[in-house]
Amino acid sequence: MDIEVIVKQVLEELTKVEKSKTNSINASKEKVEEVIRKVVFNKEKAVGVDNPADEEMIEKVQKITPARIGIGHTGTRMKTRDYLDFRIDHAAAQDAVFKGVSEEFLKELQLPVLQSKSSSMDEYLMNLNSGRKLDEASRKWAEEHLPKNKQVQIIVSDGLSSSGIEANISDLLPALIQGLKVRNISIGDPVFIKRSRVWIQDEIAKIVNCDVVISLIGERPGLATSKSISAYLIYRPNQDTVEADRTVISNIHEGGVPPVEAGAFLADLLADVLKAKTSGVKFAQMK
């Protein structure tokens, strides 16, 4: 047989082998991806205690609290399912802090986006004061563009839960604005401030000269929920303002105070604060 023919046949066989390997690898990848797509961890409460003395009581308690009650154990550790459930909640809490509100969501909000002096999440977490002031560019923009002398100024802040903001603000903010308009309360242009803390509202209030400033800010996430936000409001803050001067409504999320209901309640609360001309402990004592 001619050598060229032999070489040609060998090359053809090698090509067939390589194609077979490639097809096999691709098929394996597709199978793995299909399995991954089908893996769903359904979170559901169940009594994990072996031979409980009062299983019915454990079930009742589990229904009224998000705490991990009656999960049982294997030796000195949690059972595998409960451990996976814990890891999922822990990962969600970390994501809520570190991932930041998405640019797509910010575009949907259609709010001016300002920035605190925190240049990174590490700085925001380690240097509290960096989140309490606007950076220079944002401060100048606010001075030039935000409406002045309104009764209420609204701030939206990612705070410690970007997940909380994305889950609740789309329902909460319109309900709050509508409630204020129904009461003929004048509102400044709401703003979103990245990596800001509650006290940044004092600087904003000074810039716009409003009566009340309210911050809708992501709460520190826990293992029960990573999607909660709080509303902090204060009447005419100044250099002598302390924490006791602020009124706060917390646990705004689908498992706590629903966002639409919270918006309506906050509108009523702001109307009362404007009438009382005070907030915080002094306002609570008047109620």
Automatic annotation (TrEMBL):
Q: By what name is this protein known?
A: Ethanolamine ammonia-lyase small subunit
Main location (coarse class): other
Q: Where in the cell is it found?
A: Bacterial microcompartment
Choose any GO biological process term that the UniProt entry carries and state it. amino acid metabolic process
Q: Give a short account of what the protein does.
A: Catalyzes the deamination of various vicinal amino-alcohols to oxo compounds. Allows this organism to utilize ethanolamine as the sole source of nitrogen and carbon in the presence of external vitamin B12.
What does the entry comment about cofactor binding? Binds between the large and small subunits.
Q: What HAMAP family does this protein's entry cite? A: EutC
Molecular functions (GO terms): cobalamin binding; ethanolamine ammonia-lyase activity
Provide the binding site for adenosylcob(III)alamin: 198, 219
Q: Which UniProt keywords apply?
A: Bacterial microcompartment, Cobalamin, Cobalt, Lyase
Instruction: Check the record and name the InterPro entries matching this protein.
Output: EutC (IPR009246), EutC_C (IPR042251), EutC_N (IPR042255)
User: What does the record note on quaternary structure?
Assistant: The basic unit is a heterodimer which dimerizes to form tetramers. The heterotetramers trimerize; 6 large subunits form a core ring with 6 small subunits projecting outwards.
Q: Which reaction does it catalyse?
A: ethanolamine = acetaldehyde + NH4(+)
Give the top-rank taxon of the lineage listed in the UniProt record for this protein.
Answer: Bacteria
Q: Which family does the entry's similarity section mention?
A: Belongs to the EutC family.
> Could you give one GO CC term from the UniProt record?
ethanolamine ammonia-lyase complex
EC code: 4.3.1.7
Question: Required cofactors, per record?
Answer: adenosylcob(III)alamin
Q: In which pathway does it act?
A: Amine and polyamine degradation; ethanolamine degradation
Pfam families from the xrefs? EutC
